[in-house]
Amino acid sequence: MATDAGYAKYVCDQLHGAGGISARKMFGEYGLYRHGKIVALIADNQLFVKPTPAGEAVLGTPTYGPPYPGAKPFFNVSDLLDDPEWLVRLIEATDAALPPPKKKPERKTAASKRLAEAPAKRPAKKVAKKVVKKVVKQVVPKRVTRRKPATKK
Q1: Which CATH number fits domain 5-97: 3.30.1490.270, 3.30.1460.30, 1.10.1200.10, 3.40.50.720?
Q2: Mean pLDDT computed over 44-58
Q3: In the chain, where are the structural domains located?
Q4: For residue 79, what are the contacts with CB-CB under 8 A and spacing of at least 6?
Q5: Dihedral sign, CA of 83, 87, 90, 93?
Q6: d(C-alpha 99, C-alpha 85), whole Å
Q7: Are the CB atoms for 10 and 35 separated by under 8 Å?
Q8: Average pLDDT over residues 22-42
Q9: Exposed site from 3, 21, 39, 106, fewest CB < 10 Å?
Q10: What is the pTM of this model?
């Protein structure tokens, strides 16, 4: 069952005090981000926060549950959405405990790859051709062409 957009908006509204909160649709569910770092998932109209020692300290005794089949267990805090101050503390603690997101490498198109490689390849080819010509001239003697004798008329 996919999450309702209204539920995702409600969760974001509850976490407004944390600042930098946004939700992005992912495979019919939502990822909850704080300053570009994913801190929770919203799946099947439930809020699942990434498990961290700092988050566990805020929760006390957390309730675990997988956000989707085959996933690692997350903190299921859906029943605690009515206390925004407590939820903000949990998200801030989780955000502080998680590493920063990895920077994505620049995407290179096929044309930009060719341009990047072209200056290195062209001079090497020219140098190689010159070297081969010199070696061939030294090793292979010039052909001597014989003239045909002139025919008499």
Answers
A1: 3.30.1460.30
A2: 93
A3: 5-97
A4: 63
A5: negative
A6: 23
A7: no
A8: 91
A9: 106
A10: 0.66
